[in-house]
Amino acid sequence: MKKILVLFTGGTIGSITTDGIIDVEREGKYAVVEAYKSAYGDDVEFECRQILNILSENMGFSGWEKMIHEINSIDTALYSGVILTHGSDTLAYTSALLGMYFRHFDIPLFIIASNKPIGEKGSNGLFNFTSAVGLIKEGKYKGVFTLYERVMLPTRVIPADTCRDRFGVYGYDGFNDFSVFSGVSENMLSRPRERIFHNDVKFGKRILFIEGYPAMDFGCFMPNEDTAAVLYSPYHSATACTDVSKGKSYALTEFIKRCITKNIMVYICGLKRKVPIYSTVAEIIKAGSIPIYTTSAVAAYMKLLLAYNQEEMPVKEVMGKDLFFEEVKFS
């Protein structure tokens, strides 16, 4: 078996607790690798690289640029697989981005995290790491996956709750017993996928991401010169307030019109193609918004961010592609 490449970015899985404060380990130690060797011996050869060393709540454009650059530079012929360690707070966002950009990856790349620092009681970090190693050994899957107590498509991961640290998965339950995939067949996963992106990405253009809530005043949102587009995540039935009698600043339709006058398109996440639709949804579409059908807001946001910041093809072409079973249907 070829060696496994482990890419470290910090996060809880790369942290220690000192005087009640959790922060990244500054000594550059690879605690999860050492814990694996202590438990299972030297049955696997690891190559370790530190890309970043931050808590994932501090993740952003520069961190994603470094990850993409580092993974782009990998000679996959040298490795059986890659494990990227990450913090849990922004795990869903990084997972979606890497899953889409590296849809073509010809060896398994597992993105993992931990609920507590390695070695602390109740930590699942070693379990997640060991599970990733085991699946790489099997050689059954290739491409990008997120592994946190179960294996998930990276483009469908929904951020964890703040109570049980459980990640959701948009539209399905993930792998069952690490073997049977729900929603996407093993045959579909095993097919070679065309490489779409070849160049590193520079995130200079921003997507304003707004999540709906009652009595929202859209006058509080002011797209600036760096705003390429707006993504609005509405209520369950893809609805939002359109009642101008409550004040024009409270109607999504009026906000859409204001953005369009500035040549900023507004994308509405989670609309359904089925009819009939609510009158409010019809008004939102009529106002000039661009529907994105049946997807998680995280996947829609990361796809828009990638589409507007890559230079290899038009935005509409990127949005129309299935980057990795992410279910972002663009119209």
UniProtKB/TrEMBL annotation:
Matches recorded under PROSITE patterns: ASN_GLN_ASE_1, ASN_GLN_ASE_3
Family, per entry: Belongs to the asparaginase 1 family.
Domain of life assignment: Bacteria
Species name: Hominimerdicola aceti
SUPFAM superfamilies, per the entry: Glutaminase/Asparaginase (SSF53774)
Catalytic-site annotation from UniProt: 12 (o-isoaspartyl threonine intermediate), 12
Identification of the protein by name: asparaginase
Keywords attached to this entry: Hydrolase
Boundaries of every L-asparaginase N-terminal domain copy: 3-147
GO biological processes: amino acid metabolic process
GO MF annotation terms: asparaginase activity
Record EC number: 3.5.1.1
A Pfam family matched in the record: Asparaginase
